[in-house]
């Protein structure tokens, strides 16, 4: 027996928080192999990419729901509060605490760290708004880590690169909301877009396989204000997962949630994941699995992330934590030990980020400029578009946002 998603998704009585936390830890696990040992975690499947795709699916669902419940300015204000304060403190911590310590260890001084090309000030200036334009700081980590020896990268916080794609999706949703396309009468347009993207994905796969080549996936989109350069392939796939989540929200009154269908989707996704042949239909199954699990997992998991959402903090801090740990040799304890140690430290930073930065920032979500306070209240959602509950975004990332 099946029920529509709208009937099974009841406000905060869901497991999106647990799923976001699981995805954040999956990224930490994937990066444990890459940063600690200079190799992929699994030969066929990039567990980190799969987790980030899950983030984007949840984000699409929750962000579209948020946009349908508020005015466009209020929606953008909420998104800014969810992403930027946490990111800014993370950048400052990386540039003003981690970088000087690494520079002192390498050179015995901090001279030349701040204003030199590629130094701390450039790192903060170029990455401040979410676009990861500068990957490293000075010559820190060069030759010192397994990741450098594997990829040659001086990246100090590689997780941040997906935030630009997340912000792009937010802006696109704001445009759709402003054009009233998220209303019931026009919701067929996002559905048509999802079908078109699925068709292109299948066409590209038939012609090019999984090599990232094809229509809409080759080259870059540049330069975008604030966001910098976006790879079309990443924008295509992450945007597709975000779109699937958004369409699921728009059609939640018609999308059936069925246990047999959920198990079938899980089997299809698992088979595709093991084979390493990710393409459109498999990702549709994956998106359905996420929504199915969100409403079918045990109620005990509903508490995770309801009051304290640490997933975004884990996502934005874990890469820095693991790079430093790898530099000092913590990987000597083995992959599982390195993962557990870095996850524990990352959760600690995430807790500090949530309680000291993210949650205090979210208390400002109802703030209104004095010049606008005498205006009438914002309009209620159109008939049929009401939505109860809006959970914090995972970030990404990473991460999915608080309404």
UniProtKB/TrEMBL annotation:
Feature: compositional bias, Low complexity: 383-395
Keywords: Acyltransferase, Membrane, Transferase, Transmembrane, Transmembrane helix
UniProt-annotated stretches for the region Disordered: 372-403
MF terms in GO: acyltransferase activity
Positions of the Acyltransferase domain: 18-354
Highest rank taxon of the organism: Bacteria
Protein's UniProt keywords contain Transport: no
Transmembrane segments annotated in the record for this chain: 21-41, 47-64, 85-104, 160-181, 188-206, 235-252, 261-279, 336-357
Protein name: Acyltransferase
Organism of origin: Micromonospora parastrephiae
């Amino acid at each position: 027996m099946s029920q529509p998603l709208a009937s099974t998704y009841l406000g905060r009585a869901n497991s999106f928080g647990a799923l976001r936390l699981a995805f954040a830890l999956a990224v930490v696990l994937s990066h444990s192999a890459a940063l600690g040992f200079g190799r992929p975690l699994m030969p066929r499947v990039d567990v980190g990419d799969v987790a980030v795709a899950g983030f984007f699916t949840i984000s699409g669902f929750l962000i579209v729901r948020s946009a349908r419940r508020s005015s466009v300015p209020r929606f953008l204000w909420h998104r800014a509060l969810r992403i930027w304060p946490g990111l800014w403190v993370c950048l400052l911590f990386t540039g003003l605490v981690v970088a000087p310590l690494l520079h002192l260890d390498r050179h015995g001084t901090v001279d030349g760290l701040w204003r030199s090309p590629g130094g701390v000030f450039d790192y903060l200036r170029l990455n401040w708004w979410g676009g990861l334009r500068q990957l490293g700081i000075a010559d820190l980590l060069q030759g010192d880590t397994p990741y450098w020896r594997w990829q040659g990268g001086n990246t100090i916080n590689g997780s941040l690169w997906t935030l630009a794609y997340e912000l792009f999706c937010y802006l696109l949703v704001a445009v759709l909301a402003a054009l009233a396309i998220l209303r019931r009468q026009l919701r067929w347009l996002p559905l048509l877009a999802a079908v078109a993207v699925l068709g292109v994905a299948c066409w590209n796969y038939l012609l090019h396989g999984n090599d990232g080549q094809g229509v809409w996936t080759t080259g870059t989109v540049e330069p975008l204000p604030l966001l910098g350069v976006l790879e079309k392939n990443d924008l295509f796939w992450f945007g597709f997962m975000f779109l699937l989540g958004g369409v699921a929200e728009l059609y939640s009154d018609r999308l059936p949630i069925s246990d047999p269908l959920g198990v079938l989707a899980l089997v299809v996704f698992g088979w595709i994941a093991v084979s390493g042949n990710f393409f459109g239909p498999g990702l549709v199954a994956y998106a359905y699995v996420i929504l199915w699990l969100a409403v079918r997992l045990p109620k005990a998991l509903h508490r995770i992330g309801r009051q304290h959402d640490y997933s975004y903090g884990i996502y934005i801090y874990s890469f820095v934590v693991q790079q430093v740990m790898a530099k000092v040799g913590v990987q000597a304890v083995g992959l599982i030990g390195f993962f557990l140690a870095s996850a524990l430290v990352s959760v600690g930073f995430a807790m500090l980020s949530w309680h000291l930065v993210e949650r205090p920032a979210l208390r400002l979500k109802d703030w209104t400029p004095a010049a606008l306070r005498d205006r009438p209240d914002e309009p209620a959602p159109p008939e049929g578009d009401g939505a109860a509950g809006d959970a914090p975004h995972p970030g990404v990332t990473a991460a999915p946002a608080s309404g």
